[in-house]
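note to self — DONT lose this again. spent like an hour looking for the file last time. sequence + predicted structure for the chain T wanted, 382 res
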Amino acid sequence: MRPTVKLFCLISLMLCMSSGIAKTTRAVAAHQSALNSVIQKIQTLKEDLFTAQSQSKTLQKNLQQTDISIGALAKNIQLTQTQLTEQKKLLAQMTQQNDQYQSQLEKQRTLLAAQIRSAYLLGNQPYLKLLLNQESPEKFSRYANYYQYINRARLQAIQSIKQLVIKINENETNIQQRTETLNQTYQQQQQQKQDLRKKELQRKQLLDETNKKIQGKNEQLNKLYEDKTQLETVIKKIAAQPVITRAPGKPFRQMRGQLQWPVVGRIIQHFNQPLAQGRLHSTGILIKAPAGQQVRAISSGKVVFADWLRGFGLLTIIKHGDNYLSLYGRNQSLYVKTGDTVQAGQMIATVGNSGGFQQNALYFEIRYKGAPSNPGLWLRKA
């Protein structure tokens, strides 16, 4: 081959290679620009997410206060209902006593009417007439005593009727006062129920606002991370550069299978059940039950925690000895405080959905030396 031809071929080859490198460089640059744009969006979203999370902390505090207020209101309503029941019993007793007084009054009226008739019949022979027309001292004495007896009986009957009338009036006044108090208590209870509904609505709004903000930002961030990964993959293939990615009785221990259930309900989440798409597992059980149903201690022990805790709502923890603990979460109201001693079967709380949960249920755990233990092995078979 002549030198001129060789030189021409060499130049042509160099131009082709230069053109390919230029195309590759432009492609990498284009994708790198897109990647930089995505990274910038990720940074912006991170900042927005940080702001939303800061707001969620404030909302979480509001949620905590709302849960505590709802628990207090529910407790007050239960106390009011107890007072209503007692007042109704007293009202029934007073009504029954009043009926007895009315019956006695009718008897006294009948007796007085009979005595008046007897006095009228005796009136045909007044006391002076009996004295002047006496036939014998014995007969006079008998008539005189009879006359005096009727008068005394009449006075006693009148006095008894007066006393009964006073008692009936006092009873009617008491009944009226009790009825007014009962109505006031009833109105108070209705107002408390309305306040409870307002608190529940407020809590749901706060919860929805928190979930929407955090969930929306997280979804956008996850989508951008996916886009970022795809772009990094494209750049890796084009530039052939690897991308590094980062990723009191029996000891508690002898009560296995004998403990009573903390609440009557249906298990809707079992021990060790996968959560969060398998990334986590349940360390307790979730028992579905109506709101306000009583929660009872499974065994005697000492309350070591009774307060609101994030993720558990209103929570009670009881220490049973031998390094065993039982946990009762998501309650509506707490009826014990830290330091209290409780007995097996004692009411310690009521079922609710505190902590930001939608469904009314009791979250229950048993722990030994801090490690979760399957409650199904400890509770009685249903």
